[in-house]
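Hello again, I could really use a second opinion on something today. I've been staring at a protein lately and its backbone has me curious. Please have a think about how the structure follows from the sequence. I owe you a coffee for this, so here goes:
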Amino acid sequence: MASQCVTFFHPATMTTTAPQDRAYTDIRDAVRALCAEFPDAYHREVDSRRAYPEAFVDALTKAGWMAALIPQEYGGSGLGLAEASVIMEEINRCGGNSGACHGQMYNMGTLLRHGSKAQKELYLPQIATGALRLQSMGVTEPTTGTDTTKIKTTAVKKGDRYVVNGQKVWISRIQHSDLMILLARTTPLADVKKKSEGMSIFIVDLRDSIGKGLDVRPIPNMVNHETNELFFENLEIPAENLIGEEGQGFKYILDGLNAERTLIAAECIGDGRWFVDKVSAYVKDRIVFELPESDHQVTLAELRESIHVIRELANSRSVEYNGAQLQLPWSKGSHVDVWVAAYGPLALKLTGEVGDGFILQLADLDIAKWMIQTVRDAADNEHVEGGLLAEGFGGARSGAEQDVALAGDELQRCR
């Protein structure tokens, strides 16, 4: 995979302001400088070949950004989810697509919180250097949708191994990953007291699994986003690859999925800012009736509306940073759960509105195609919906839990 020669960006070298100031100036400047080496033309060329941005992801890895959430003792930067959100936001603000690499960020949540010391010592240093990539998470199934408790993929323990059978769908980046976090049912649904129990999390070494019980079938799609169907037929996984306690995987996976929602919301913020920057520059340079297009009232009105939307996005960032900065386990009934659940759909919705204005203003079809890809990738990856999150609360829904469900409904409408 990527080179193992890595220069890390440690928190000791930073001069950041408080989260509510939304500054993180050193991080923003450094990420923008790296992204400047990969202009729009690079990403369009990669997209035209339906390829993976290997050089870009390698550069992010060498600079230490992909190891932001890994503790320093394991070779990472030891930063938090707020800083990781800033990194993803700036990548998209600069015209990149964090969807190619953000999986490594949010998958860290499950491994960091619940992995054993031996697992962390084995995997985290190699992930930090880029020797291994952890870009993929196997949760979604074709017959269960967002009701994750109904998954049918099973893992049955036989001696020192688990034997996995079943199917997953819409599993992204598996062709560019060495490891995958897998959710499977280890106790039949009929045998558990709560339907959120009886599922377990495993680390799957894809290098030893593909073609040996795991069949990967790419799914053709309209945009350059690598996603796949997975078929498991008696795939054997070493018992030591179980993360945490058997049967508690649903709770563990939420640590990764909630982080995913926060990161993707930050990416939507970056998309919105990129859209407005591009439109603002365009209408200042384009001459219509012997005047810059920005001098015309209709354009000004549209831009003012775009700015209003971006302000809403910026205000919503306080939700992201407050929720991220708490660094809490996503406990039962936590208001952080509610805010994170609501924030993702809001950011996606408002970014889509800015994108609509963007595409109306610019006649550049190449840029239009890139805009569509960016928003669709955000929607494709934002699959943590209200039904799944609400299940984590258990029992009757409180007002807060209903907010989670409504957030999921809003996400469906935005799609």
In short: Strands lie at 134-138, 154-158, 161-172, 179-185, 199-205, 214-218, 227-238, 242-243, 287-288, 291-292.
